[in-house]
Amino acid sequence: MTGYGKGEAVLHGRTITVEIRSVNNRYLDCTIKLPRIYVFAEDAIKARVQKSISRGKVDVFVTIGQSENGDVSISLNKGVADGYYAALCQMRDTYGLRDDISVSLLSRFQDVFLVEKSPEDLEAVAADICQVLDMALADFDAMRTREGGKLEEDIRSRAVTIGSLTSLVEERAPGIVADYRARLEAKMAEVLQNTQIDESRILTEAAIFADKVAVDEETVRLRSHLDQLAHMLDQGGAIGRKLDFLIQEFNREANTIGSKCNDIETARHVVDIKAEIEKIREQVQNIE
């Protein structure tokens, strides 16, 4: 599901910022972006992300400021300093300049000094990055929890609507057969006119039609899917993929009901059911 989280801290004199952004994706696709010199921490970051996020296109951005701590040694770059001094003396003698070559003048040339920084403890740096990453993941999870609550409320509401529409389909089912029998009797009366109508033939035809348009099995399965949906939402956790499959089952039952019932009123109910299923399917894409 879509989400954002951020963590920032100053650890061992180094400012570390981690940002997490995610968009919908069927599977987990994690991309880590951090300074090249810290690429050694990428596997540790990815492993931590995979423990918290199971699907979505996730981008993790890591920025690290220079450490203010650590031992720094400064020494004279004698070869470079000698070269500058000789060149300055030559300039003085050639142009008859005043002798003002001093330490202050030579120190203006930055490369006369060698600045060496002690090597970083790579394991410590990786640990610091992961510590800030945990902060970002916590922020990310908090946002997902808030958004997830809204999604759950919407899905449950639509499930109730589907249940109500299913009841309307069930209530209409006997009427479909009764209407067919009435039409059949009227048609036979019109064709046979004064001839006596074979009541057993009408009953047989009505029974065949009733069996053909019966949707009780489909509505029972549809209600079973609604119960399963509620159970999954109660359980929580990473249920996105399971819900994807369940929505396919919802659609299968709705399509079967629609194809069986040659009735305008039932067809309207089926269209409304499928519209609610589609809205749930769209919301499920935002669920991990």
Keywords summarizing the entry:
3 domains, Ribosomal Protein S5, domain 2, 288 residues, four-stranded mixed beta sheet, alpha+beta, two-stranded antiparallel ribbon
Summarize this entry quickly:
By secondary structure, the chain is α+β, with helices and mostly antiparallel strands. It is built from eight helices and six strands.
Characterise this structure:
The chain is an alpha+beta fold and 288 residues long. The protein folds into 3 domains: 83 residues, Ribosomal Protein S5, domain 2, CATH 3.30.230.10; 46 residues, no CATH class; 141 residues. Helices cover 63% and strands 15% of the residues. It has 8 helices and 6 strands, in the order E-E-E-H-E-E-H-H-E-H-H-H-H-H. The strands form 2 sheets. The chain has a 4-stranded mixed sheet with strand order 1-2-4-3. A two-stranded antiparallel ribbon has the order 5-6. A hairpin with a 2-residue loop joins strand 1 and strand 2. Helix 4 runs antiparallel to helix 6, helix 6 runs antiparallel to helix 7 and helix 7 packs antiparallel against helix 8. It starts with a strand and ends with a helix. The relative contact order is 0.13. The mean pLDDT is 84. Belongs to the YicC/YloC family. GO terms for molecular function: hydrolase activity; RNA endonuclease activity. This is TIGR00255 family protein.
